[in-house]
Amino acid sequence: MSRLTNNISALGLFAGKSSSELKEKLLDLCEDLTSNLAKMRAIANGCSDHPTYRGYQESTDDCKQCTEIFESRQFLGE
Fold first, then answer.
1. How many whole angstroms separate alpha carbon 3 and alpha carbon 32?
2. Which site in 4, 16, 23, 38 is 20 to 30 Å from 32, CA atoms measured?
3. How many whole angstroms separate alpha carbon 60 and alpha carbon 72?
4. Do 76 and 36 meet the contact criterion of CB atoms below 8 Å apart?
């Protein structure tokens, strides 16, 4: 996370604004992007136990990976 924070600080200074409000907004955006990327990775990797499951319908069993894939796909609106 420190690498990300350093990049955000550099971006804030580059924009000519080093206010804490700008840095906070940039951190929030980066956290959202990181969360969305994790959800996309879950969908792309699929389930190791159920390789044909892609999350278009809710899982019928109690598989944690399948549930995560379904919830990720619902969150991202695919």
1. 17
2. 16
3. 16
4. yes
Interatomic CA distance for residues 26 and 52, integer angstroms:
38
Nearest Cα to 57, choosing from 71, 39, 42, 46?
Answer: 71
The tally of domains found in the chain comes to 1
Q: How much is the pLDDT for 21? A: 77
Domain containing 69: what range? 2-76
Residue 48 is given by DSSP the state: S
Question: What's phi and psi for 58, nearest 5 deg?
Answer: -65, 140
